[in-house]
Amino acid sequence: MDHARAALSNLFSVEPMSYTRFSIARQTDGDNSHVEMKLSADDEEGGDVERPEHMHASMAQPQRSGKRLCFLVIAALLLLLIGFLIGYLSYRGRMQLAARCQDGSGSCEMTPTASYLVDGEAAEEEIQGPPVIYWPQLKTMLSDRLSATRLVDSLRQRTDVSSFEAGEAEDTTMATYIHDQFNSFFLDKVWNDEHYIKLQVRGSTRNKVSVLVGESEETLETPDAYVAYSESGSVSGKPVYVNYGLKKDFETIQKSVASLNGSIVIVRAGKITLAEKVANAKEAGAAGVLMYVDSHKYGITDTLIPFGHAHLGTGDPYTPGFPSFNHTQFPPIESSGLPHIAVQTISSSAAAKLFSKMDGDSCSEDWKGGIYSCKVTTKQESKIMVKIDVNNSMKDRKILNIFGAIQGSEEPDRYVVIGAQRDSWGPGVAKAGTGTAILLELARVISDIVKNEGYKPRRSIIFASWSAGDYGAVGATEWLEGYSAMLHAKAFTYINLDAAVLGANDIKISASPLLYVLLERIMKGVKDPASNSGNLYNRVGSDWVKAVVPLGLDNAAFPFLAYSGIPVVSFGFYNKDEEYRFLGTKDDTLENLRKFNNLDALLRAAAEVAGQVALRLTHDHELFLDFGRYSEELLAYQEKFLPYIKDVQELGLTLDWLFFARGDFQRAADALRRDIENSDRENKVIRRALNDRIMKVEYDFLSPYLSPKDVPFRHVFFGKGSHTLQSLVEHLQLLKTNKNSVDLNLLKEQLALTTWTIKGAANALGGDIWDTDNEF
């Protein structure tokens, strides 16, 4: 301080002035917080030395006043000049950066991945840190590096192998290859997860389907394929055809058939999963199920027999809710989704032969499909029966999930997961090959951008290769179960790459509502492979959200959303009028997939969509998740509830509390939006807190009042069970159609579960406990 005073004295040629000093003196009268201000630096004992009240009164010689005033004016002018120069250079640097980030359309999204760089004229070499990379630049880097040739080359690795069954040598070899590839891309982390699971596999002898006529037995078919988790043993019953096996199909057939108890139900593939068909048949009392692919309708060989599984769920059905890590104490329970009836797939030719032997009523035109000899059932007095012999066996197998990670620079403990199934019963080119090829290509490209362009994603990206996907997303589900305590708080999006190309004409999208806006923007920026000038958004149209396909149990993204509460997106090309019927068969080959035009371009476009989703979510300051979208989803359900207000009131109940909860969520979403607008987005602590509130929205729609062991898919929008909003709608509909079948206690429980789950989601979205809406 003395040196500073001396410097000031020399500069202005005056004597150093006294300065103000604060000291805290302990008072003897009890007030020891008194602050005493002393105006002297040379009176350490606190003596009373008189000082002039104003600074200028201390000057000894009046003639120095004008000189010193001159120096003050000059100093002020210099400070003003320096401030002007600093402001000008800063403004000029920002304008040049903004000009460089233009993407040709005149727009620029100013969300840099590092601090702003100064202009090149102002000592740029003194500033440390990565270069600024704006979103338009990042999109271009991704697009320029994606290679359609490499994608197709990856598919060729599956051309000489007939099967990649989970836990077998081919699956393990592919896992090792992917692990080595991740290492060669210099990812920050590469690791494996081992799971020890129970799988039902093909037995030592083939399964058999026979026709019994009186005392004689005629073998209909001995398929090479099998259905996992079927009940083993022998069962026979009267054959009954039930179209696609939908609930409405069973309701239709039960109007003409007295009972389905003990029958063998025949269904064709499509509309819903095999496991759902089996569950509907079991509920109707059937003893077995036969499923075939309608080859005549799809123009494929009539000897095609699909593989499949009959577990109405995901994961290892013998450790429901628990991870199958080594040394896990397996609980003595099994999944309630196991059917405990015989299930087998047959060829279309075998189904036609079976129909020809039946002597009942012919199928209606909308049930007939491509088999003109189709019969619904045999006559009551007929002695024709169908027998199914299932010889499947249980095996303990080790499967591997392979992971690679690019760690984020600011929030490494927040991550996007990009995943693809690796295993398949056949070659699995479309089912598992396309997703695996895209997974490896994205890992290579994004790693290259990070290593060679200096790009630093704010959040981490995890690349995952799953095993046992054909058995019901077993590998992915076991991982979710093993890390359930942390994943809902760290993983904020799952991108599913399975079956990315199943056609060329149409686009299929399944996604969380939180990602609708992001998907729309990305589709506008990705070129349509079928058009030289168009983009993917032009293909889906402005009302594409109405065509979003609900996630099914056969989609690996389903457990991420419905079990773990993680937003998901599953995107792919397909043909609406001509389904790819080779999934899960020995004919899922590159040759058959090549029949679609522009396979290379389609693979590349799917990879670009997935890559942009991952990069955008890890690039921006604020998570690109539209939390307000669920307000619209809740409003849509409220409109479905409105017709039943009076019917509910007649039962002594009310829908008001459910409507109030929806309003609370709307207000909480509006409050969060205001908090984001009014916050300092450069403050990392505040930004992280706001992002955490956004990323928890999906998780908060998992009903906290249900056990994940008993009801694994607890999501009130997308889960399975009586707790869902859709189940509540279906129960309310009975008030109009069949009031006697309404379960009053169940209805009360449904109203309570949905109301308090939505209210809880609103409270969580509001932030701190003192910010919640207590007017409910």
Automatic annotation (TrEMBL):
Higher taxonomy: Eukaryota, Metazoa, Chordata, Craniata, Vertebrata
The segment(s) forming the Transferrin receptor-like dimerisation domain are 654-765
Q: What SUPFAM superfamilies would the database entry show? A: PA domain, Transferrin receptor-like dimerisation domain, Zn-dependent exopeptidases
What protein family is recorded?
Answer: Belongs to the peptidase M28 family. M28B subfamily.
Q: What is this protein called?
A: Transferrin receptor protein 1
Q: Which residues form the PA domain?
A: 237-295
Per the UniProt entry, what species is this protein from, by scientific name? Coturnix japonica
Job of this protein? Cellular uptake of iron occurs via receptor-mediated endocytosis of ligand-occupied transferrin receptor into specialized endosomes. Endosomal acidification leads to iron release. The apotransferrin-receptor complex is then recycled to the cell surface with a return to neutral pH and the concomitant loss of affinity of apotransferrin for its receptor. Transferrin receptor is necessary for development of erythrocytes and the nervous system. Acts as a lipid sensor that regulates mitochondrial fusion by regulating activation of the JNK pathway.
Coiled coil feature spans: none
What are the UniProt keywords, alphabetically?
A: Cell membrane, Disulfide bond, Endocytosis, Glycoprotein, Lipoprotein, Membrane, Palmitate, Phosphoprotein, Receptor, Signal-anchor, Transmembrane, Transmembrane helix
What range(s) does the Peptidase M28 domain occupy?
401-595
How does this polypeptide assemble, per the annotation? Homodimer; disulfide-linked.
Q: Where in the cell is it found?
A: Cell membrane; Melanosome
* Residue ranges of the TM segments: 69-91
